[in-house]
Design a protein that fits this description.
Length: 290
């Protein structure tokens, strides 16, 4: 029987969290049918993947396929009507599939939720002066209005952050933060966690998961999950949660996580360190022994 270091266990956890190529590509057949359906009703300029899978930060069994659909139809003052119309139209095309509005997306659950797509309607607003990438209006998560988004600018930022201090560090930290969120049912934005992780790793000269997870969580606690100014300079502010009640609940989880992470880092590679890490990740952390 062998033993792992704490950081070795984090590497093992990351390998378990990473979706397989087959899982990432599993929805290829539905991609075209969804695009064709939406194009028939609204007219589609672009239908492209964004979010965790496209950024390389998806968490196995938890991350959905996020799609931006750039529409040719006219944008209305409220975002709710287009979400409802997309839901209703897709429900006709896929009558046995659960389809519903989960602002800011229309959520499509194929196979009873085994393969889930989240479709975000978008309207082109121009190009980013910083990156030259398209900027869109997309539905707000907190009300019936609209917010600006530049998915490809954000992807560039994450990719650039990923090379500092070592290849893969920003995406690894984002994936670990999302695992903490999913395992503990924390009502916090995955996009917020990812952009915070990318920004955090830009200031680091090395990556040790057991320490950087602790420092990253401490940072989120210190700012009390305050809004993040979009580091690409394209879209204003990025919110951690969709409501004040969700923020309060997320902060309770975060305070507990910081306590566990502090204890884990202090205990290090001992059995107690693994106990605290296991509590941090809701009893899904790899064993000290293999």
């Amino acid at each position: 029987m062998g033993t792992r270091t704490l950081d070795g266990a984090f590497r093992e956890l990351l390998s378990r969290l990473t979706p397989t190529k087959a899982e990432v590509e599993a929805g290829a057949s539905h991609r075209q049918s969804l695009r064709d359906c939406l194009d028939t009703r609204f007219g589609v300029y672009r239908f492209f993947e964004t979010g965790s899978f496209s950024h390389g930060t998806g968490v196995r069994f938890f991350s959905d396929t996020d799609m931006i659909v750039s529409l040719k139809t006219s944008q209305q003052a409220s975002s709710l009507p287009i979400l409802v119309t997309i839901r209703d139209f897709l429900s006709i095309r896929f009558p046995s599939t659960r389809i519903y509005v989960s602002r800011p997306t229309v959520r499509v659950e194929f196979g009873g939720g085994y393969e889930t797509w989240e479709i975000v309607p978008a309207f082109i607003r121009g190009k980013s002066p910083m990156t030259g990438e398209p900027v869109y209006s997309i539905p707000s998560a907190s009300n019936d209005g609209w917010i600006l988004s530049s998915p490809e600018s954000h992807l560039k930022y994450v990719n650039d952050s990923n090379s500092n201090p070592e290849y893969g560090a920003a995406k690894a930290l984002a994936r670990l933060a999302k695992a903490w969120k999913y395992y503990n049912s924390v009502p916090i934005s995955s996009f917020y966690l990812e952009m915070q992780a990318a920004q955090y790793m830009r200031g680091q000269s090395s990556f040790l998961p057991s320490l950087d997870v602790m420092y990253y969580l401490r940072h989120l606690q210190r700012i009390r999950l305050g809004d993040l100014q979009d580091p690409t300079g394209d879209t204003g502010w990025i919110s951690a949660t969709s409501s004040s009640s969700a923020r309060e609940e997320a902060l309770r989880h975060l305070d507990s996580a910081v306590f566990h992470a502090n204890q884990m880092a202090e205990a290090g590679d001992t059995t107690l360190g693994f106990v605290w890490a296991d509590l941090l990740f809701d009893h899904k952390f790899p064993s000290q022994y293999f």
